[in-house]
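dude i think i finally got it to work??
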Amino acid sequence: MEQAETPIPAHGVVQPMQCLSEGYALISPQYMPLAAICFVGTLIGSLVPAGILMGPMFCGIHLCLQQRREGGQATFDLLFKGFDYAGDSIIAMLIFAGIYIVMYIPMVFGFLILAPLMLIATVGQGGKSSGIALAGMGGAVVLSVLAISLLVAILGTVVWSTMGLIVEWKVKPWQAVKTAFRGLMENFLGTVGLGLLCGLVHLAGALCCGIGIFFTTPIVFAAYFCAYKQVFGQRPPELVGTAKAECETL
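look at this
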């Protein structure tokens, strides 16, 4: 299909609590089927290194959520319809894999450098400051984990927007990634707030013996979907109803 005009992201429109509440309202009539769809999608997406199959699966989940938004029913057939966008979405995920690597390397090397320096300082003082050194190392680990978790949550909105642009606006991968990051910068505080909120939702699920992730994942994905809609608006007029039509042809 011919590429539609690339949308211009709206400024300062992401409302974290609104995204979460609207997302839950969107999926609640079909909560368990969507939870199963998200579980299968993320499971398949994790089968290949670097998560490159997450691209088609995210596209399929996006189609399911769009179907719900248009008053239809989300199905597994629509999830696998995401493979229609495999080429562009896999390229986009490879781009994000590179971004994640660049993001992680400074943090890992920073910790690898900081830990020996603290140990050297401790040995140099006869072990008197071992408690301080250990506390410092522990603090560094906690801060690193929190920073990575927040960055992953924030980038989750960018990944989701990228897949939405590929599915709905037929934007090419590199342009979709750039446009999604523009949306992030235009709504930075709201996106950070949404990232924190979704991180807490996932944390709550993880604390429930890990099983809770099954129930929190569709809520988080739906919140990302609603944030995407707030930033990039409605689908192009010529594409309205496409998800429903695609589902009816299966």
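Residues 240-244 have pLDDT under 50 and may be disordered.
im so relieved honestly
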